[in-house]
Write a structure and sequence with these properties.
The chain is of the alpha+beta class. It is built from 8 helices and 11 strands. The strands form 2 sheets. The chain has a 7-stranded mixed sheet, sandwiched between helices. The protein has a 4-stranded antiparallel sheet with strand order 9-10-8-11.
């Protein structure tokens, strides 16, 4: 009996040790878990700081007195055989000032984007500015080293594209083009650029790729154009219309690339189902100009729709495309 009692006590003791060990392992795992939220709080704090910096940024055209700061950022950011010279930055600021824009934090330049206009994106376009060129060739997108990896470059470039597109009300600049190395293609695609192909332009030692971002006019030219609106309803079976509908989409897209201020879509019911008919807004100088354009629409030219064209005058607010 005593022997049995001793064995029971031993078993109980061993069980207690196992429970204690299990309790220790569980507690250790719990404390490990408690460390993760701190790390995420740190990341969240960093994101908060980043958001604060971006919200405080001021963007404006570069001034002559900014060039000394810009050349310091440029030379610290690019290899010697790729960095622009002081003379190049001075030339761009003087001859293409609307396209040389700085990002400032507390009145200090911490980044900039500069570009010049050209008709063809070739080696020569890296050194000259053609005031009437239909392409805008970007030469530098750069942020001071101690402010990198905070999404400042993304914010700066997006603001740049928005500003350039907004200022070009007549659609004279059709596309923004640039060269980038492979490791930066993702950054530029995120900002709205499309990778075209490897570039034949030799700039430094590495392979570069050509990228393009088409600018879209968002408003009529003030004092010269006004809004027109086309409404339409299909009048043939959809299978017959579909090929012409695809041609219509490409036609509108090509006009936007050419600098026309135009958008097209269709109306839907409360459940998102189509059937309400098509709707198009476009900017033109006169009704006859708008009509001449509408008659080229594949849906109209192939007698797929009943349509009507009207001028549109805003009474409260206005329309702006994107």
């Amino acid at each position: 009996m005593a022997s049995l009692l001793i064995r029971c006590l031993a078993s109980i003791s061993m069980l207690c040790q196992l429970l204690a060990a299990a309790s220790f392992v569980s507690t250790a795992r719990f404390h490990f878990g408690r460390k993760d939220p701190g790390r995420f709080r740190s990341l969240a704090s960093h994101a908060s700081v980043t958001d604060d910096v971006i919200s405080r940024l001021v963007y404006r055209p570069a001034k002559p007195q900014d060039i000394s700061a810009c050349i310091d950022i440029e030379t610290a950011s690019y290899p010697e055989d790729e960095a622009a010279s002081l003379a190049s930055l001075e030339y761009r600021q003087h001859n293409a000032s609307p396209y040389f824009r700085c990002a400032l934090l507390d009145n200090v330049v911490i980044g900039f984007v500069c570009a010049t206009r050209c008709d063809r994106f070739e080696e020569e376009s890296m050194t000259k500015n053609l005031p009437d060129g239909c392409l805008l060739a970007v030469h530098s997108v750069v942020v001071r080293e101690d402010f990198r990896r905070r999404s400042i470059g993304t914010a700066m470039l997006r603001n740049y594209l928005e500003q350039v597109g907004g200022d070009d009300t007549e659609g004279n600049v059709r596309s923004v083009v640039l060269l980038a190395k492979q490791n930066l293609l993702g950054f530029y695609v995120k900002c709205g650029f499309v990778v075209m192909r490897p570039s034949p332009i030799v700039h430094g030692k590495e392979l570069w790729y050509k990228l393009k971002h088409d600018l879209v006019r968002t408003l009529p030219v003030e004092g010269k154009e006004s809004w027109f609106c086309k409404t339409e309803q299909f009048k043939r079976p959809f299978p017959e219309i579909k090929p012409h509908l695809e041609a219509h989409k490409e036609w509108v897209a090509s006009l936007r690339r050419e600098g026309f201020c135009i958008t097209s879509g269709y109306r839907v019911d409360s459940k998102g189902r189509p059937g309400g008919g098509g709707l198009m807004f476009l900017a033109a100088k006169t009704y006859d100009d708008a009509l001449s354009l509408i008659l080229q629409d594949p849906l109209v030219a192939n007698d797929c729709v009943d349509w009507e064209l009207n001028g549109w005058i805003g009474q409260v607010g206005d329309i702006q495309l994107r």
